[in-house]
Amino acid sequence: MRLDRLTLTNFKNIGEADLEFSPKINCLLGNNGMGKSNMLDAVYFLSFCKSFTGVTDQMLLKSGEDFAIARGCYVRKDTPEELTLGLTRGKRKSLKRGGKEYSRLSEHIGLFPLVLVTPADIDLIKGVSEERRRWMDMVISQGDRRYLDALIRYSTALEQRNRLLRDGVTDRALYEAIEMQMDFTASYLHEARIKWVDELQTLFERYYAAIAGGSGEDVHLTYRSFLDTSDDGTLTSLLEANRLRDAALRHTSVGPHRDDIEMTLNGMPMKRTASQGQCKTFTTALRFAQYEFLHRASGMRPLLLLDDIFDKLDSSRVERIMNMVTGDDFGQIFITDTNRTHLDEIMARTAGEYRMWSVDNGKFSEDSRI
After folding, report:
1. 116 with 40: CB under 8 angstroms?
2. Which candidate, 290, 320, 323, 318, places its Cα nearest to that of 304?
3. How far apart are CA 328 and CA 342, in angstroms?
4. What confidence tens digit (pLDDT) does each residue in 168-223 have?
5. pLDDT band at 370, cuts 50/70/90?
6. Which residues of 187-209 are buried (b: 16+ CB within 10 A; e: fewer)?
7. How far, in Å, CA of 221 to CA of 202, rounded?
8. How many helices (H) does the chain have, and how many strands (E)?
9. What angle is formed at CA 354 by the lines to CA 142 and CA 328, rounded to 5 degrees?
C-alpha cells in the first residue's frame, strides 16, 4: 500500500498543503514545532480516525477556523482509493472512503495499515499498563476483525458492570447476566493476546539484535493476564470472587482491561534498568516487529512513519536502522528530522526513490537541493 497524495486544509498549524509523495522515502526537514509531525498526524488520522497525540478532534482545527479537511489518495492492493476526513467545530467527524461515509468508524480500522515510530513510544516502557494494553489492542485489531468486535463488546459490558457498582446495585442476577457477556468475550481476547505476544516475540528479538548489532542482550515480552490466576480458567469465577471487593472499590478490578505486557532486558524490568539508548532500541524494534506482523496479517506493506527516530541513538545504531528502512523489507516511508545529515545519508541509499520538503510554520516547500 502507498499514499500518493495528501491534501490538507486547516489541519493543526497547516493552513493549506498539497503534497505528492515518492513510493519509497519521503523526508520532512525542519525545526521542532514547524508542522512536520502534524503532517504525519494527518496521515495517521486517515488510518485510525484519531490523532496519535491523544488530543480531541476539535483541537485538530487550525486556530480561528471552524473546519478542517484531510484527503489522501492511496493505492491499496493495486487499486486506487481515496479517503476524506472532515472535521467541523461542534459536529461529529466524517470519514469517507471513495465518497461514501462510514456508518461506523470501527469498520475502517485495519483497512489502511500504518505503523508510527515516535519519541512518545517510551511510554510503552515507562508508562502505565494502560499504554501497553492500548498498543496491543490497536495492533491485534488491525489484523483481526473478530478481536475488535470482542473488545468493543467487552468494554460495553465492563462499563455496565461498573455502573452497577457505582450505583450500589446488589441484585446478583444483574451481575451474573453482565458477567456472562464479559466472560465470553474475555476468552477470545485472552487467546488472541497470547498468540500475538508469542508471534511478536520472535520478530522482536530479531529486530532488536539487528539494531543493537548482536550485543548479546536478552530482551523478552511476557503477557500477564488475570485469567491465568483463575482456578477454572474463566473470568466468571474471578468476577464472582471479587464482587464484594469491587463493590467497595466501585469498579471492576480484574479482567482483560487490567492485563499487561512485562518487558525485560537480561531478566530485569526495562523501566528500571535500561539506558535511554537501550529503551529507544527496544521500542524501535517493537515497532518494526509490529510492522512485519501487520504485513503478514494484511497482505500489504503498511505505511511506516518515523518521527524523530534517531534521537538518543548512537551513530552505529542509526546506521543499522537506515540500512533496514531503505531495504526491501519496508515499503513507503515518511521520516521527520531536524538533522539534514541523517536525511541526506538515507536518501543517498535509495537510488533516486525519495522526496524531501523543508517545513516552516505549517508551510511545505520541496527542497531544491535534491
Report:
1. yes
2. 290
3. 20
4. 999 999 999 999 999 999 999 999 999 999 999 999 999 999 999 877 889 999 99
5. very low
6. bbbbebbeebbeebbebbbebbb
7. 10
8. 11, 15
9. 55
Distance of alpha carbon 274 from the chain centroid: 23
Cell of 161: 458492570
Return the residue matching grid coordinates 518515523. Answer: 306
Asked whether 303 and 43 are in contact (CB, 8 A), the reply is yes
| DSSP-derived secondary structure letter, 171 | -
Site of grid cell 453482565: 178
Q: How many residues does the chain have?
A: 370
Q: What is the DSSP string of 59-126?
A: GGBPTT-SEEEEEEEEEETTEEEEEEEEEETTS--EEEETTEE-SSGGGGTTSS-EEEE-GGGGHHHH
What's 302's DSSP letter?
P
What is the reported pTM?
0.92
